[in-house]
Specification:
Layout (H helix, E strand, L loop, with lengths): L3 E7 L3 H12 L4 E5 L12 H6 L1 H19 L15 H25 L3 E9 L4 E6 L5 E10 L3 E3 L12 E2 L13 E5 L3 H12 L3 E5 L11 H13 L3 E3 L3 E6 L4 E7 L2 E7 L1 E4 L3 E3 L32 E3 L10 H15 L13 E3 L4 E6 L2 H7 L3 E7 L4 H5 L6 E7 L5 E8 L2 H13 L4 H5 L10 H10 L9
Parallel strand pairs: 1-2, 1-5, 2-3, 5-16, 7-14, 8-9, 8-14, 9-10
Antiparallel strand pairs: 3-4, 4-5, 6-15, 11-12, 12-13, 17-18, 18-21, 19-20, 20-21
């Protein structure tokens, strides 16, 4: 007789493992099937994000910034450091240890919550049956009352630049270089391209980013995007927009051929990162007879509560509509778990924050100014530069601004956009404000500690009504 569970989750990334934890907390007998293997070919929880994505990339971003600042910035603080040396091996070991600690932590949480972890591949069959194919051994057919599909995503490939795992790599390979490339090419100047470009630029690479789009960070508020491009260019990133790669030729170096408005060009690089986006990892997730509705791009069709077209089958995270963000997937996982336990569960998709961990950081929530212009919705804008913020000056981080957009008639906050120090942390205040339908006046009347970076948010909210105290309105 088949083993039976209340819930079977396929996928143990941020969407899947969080869904499993909440299901278990609510008393549901839960199993998780996940096929991820680390670079030692050992099963590991946490999916792409914890193992080869969000967490290791942030570790390298922080380490590389520490090295860069020790080399170039400490003297401004009166701290003289000479002969700063890079130990890339130690930097990579630190990154790997952080990953091991966090994935090990999830393993302990699974154990404490009595979640059955099944390393291997999961395939959905009819009537909420799931075929479990372990990495070694025979397959087994399991039965569930409910199934949560959290298959995640994988890097998109480019025919013109086939990966070889050594010189031409994807985002995971970009964090495993054992030496700093003298010349590094990156196809794509989106989130991943900019973050990986920042890491290796700080460590000494000459970095060229080839972006097919004519505009820089098209989904970001364009006032901030323009300033971000200016700052990143000053740091040494060579960002070439409207550049479509047509061929990569292997030789002593890599010859990357591309086209732009001025014609055909090529650059010579030692390593090449392909960072042209991600797509759902839904191949072989369900047998055809199961009848799961998946669109031509690989996304699983779901409603607002992440229910698929099949009774008792749900899907969350990168494999469904909406932004491919770990925190979005986690909240969807919690929502589904709550609803399976007959509790209220919702996700407010209008107030999901975005972050790009460059330096300065870029973070935003809600509508951009260009989007509001296109719809004709009346709005007001207030902004404040970190150059006039005392804490930012004291930190030697005076670059960037906070921008608050509010409805012209109701004053309700429609969007907040931050370019500057710790933008990833500061955006949380804006998310909370918007979750409670706050007005710009509400934010302006909230007392902020002095001196703090958050005062820039306060001043930007005041600026919406031309009341800013530390700028000319």
């Amino acid at each position: 007789m088949a083993r039976s569970f209340d819930v079977i989750v396929i996928g143990a990334g941020p969407a899947g493992y969080v869904a499993a934890l909440r299901c278990a907390q609510l008393g549901l007998n839960t199993a998780v099937i996940d096929e991820f293997l680390d670079k030692k070919a050992q099963p590991a929880l946490g999916g792409t994000c914890l193992n080869i994505g969000c967490i290791p990339s942030k570790a390298l971003l922080d380490s590389s910034q520490q090295y860069h600042y020790a080399s170039t910035g400490l003297a401004r603080h009166g701290v003289q450091v000479r002969d700063v040396e890079l130990d890339l091996g130690a930097m990579l070991e630190r990154k790997d240890q952080i990953v091991a600690d966090l994935t090990g932590g999830i393993r302990q949480l699974f154990k404490a919550n009595k979640i059955q972890w099944l390393p291997g591949h999961g395939t959905l069959h009819e009537d909420r049956r799931v075929e479990f194919s372990p990495h070694e051994g025979d397959s087994e057919l399991l039965q569930a009352e409910s199934v949560i599909l959290a298959a995640g995503s994988q890097p998109m490939t480019l025919d013109a630049a086939p990966l070889d795992g050594e010189r031409v790599v994807d985002s995971a390979g970009a964090m495993e270089f054992t030496e700093v490339p003298k010349r590094l090419g990156i196809i794509g100047a989106g989130v991943i391209g900019l973050e990986m470009g920042s890491v290796w630029n700080r460590l000494g690479s000459k970095v060229v980013l080839l972006e097919a789009m004519e505009s820089f960070l098209a989904t970001v508020d364009q006032q901030l995007a323009r300033e971000a491009q200016r700052q990143l260019t000053k740091q040494g990133l060579d960002i070439r927009l409207g550049s479509r790669v047509t061929e990569v030729r292997q030789g002593k170096t890599l010859s990357v051929h591309y086209e732009d408005r001025e014609g055909e060009h090529n650059i010579q690089v030692d390593r090449l990162i392909v960072a042209v986006g991600r797509r759902p990892r839904t191949e072989n997730l369900a047998v055809e007879d199961a009848g799961l509705l998946i669109d031509e791009q690989g996304f699983i069709h779901v409603n607002e509560h992440c229910e698929t077209n099949l009774p008792g089958v749900y899907a969350v995270g990168d494999a469904v509509r909406g932004p491919m963000l770990a925190h979005k997937g986690s909240e969807e996982g919690v929502m589904v778990a709550e609803r399976l336990a007959n509790r209220a569960g919702e996700v407010n998709y209008d107030v999901i924050p975005w972050v790009i961990y460059t330096h300065p950081e870029i973070a935003w929530v809600g509508h951009t100014e260009q989007a509001l212009k296109s719809t004709g919705e009346p709005y007001r804008v207030g902004s404040f530069n970190f150059g006039a913020n005392g804490r930012a000056r004291a930190m030697d981080e005076p670059v960037g601004l906070v921008k608050v957009i509010a409805h012209d008639e109701t004053d309700r906050i429609l969007g907040v956009h931050i370019l500057g120090p710790q933008a990833s942390e500061l955006i949380a205040e804006a998310v909370l404000a918007m979750e409670y339908a706050a007005s710009a006046e509400d934010l302006a009347r909230t007392v902020h500690a002095h001196p703090t970076l958050s005062e820039a948010m306060h001043e930007a909210a005041l600026s919406v009504h031309k009341r800013a105290l530390h700028k000319v309105n």
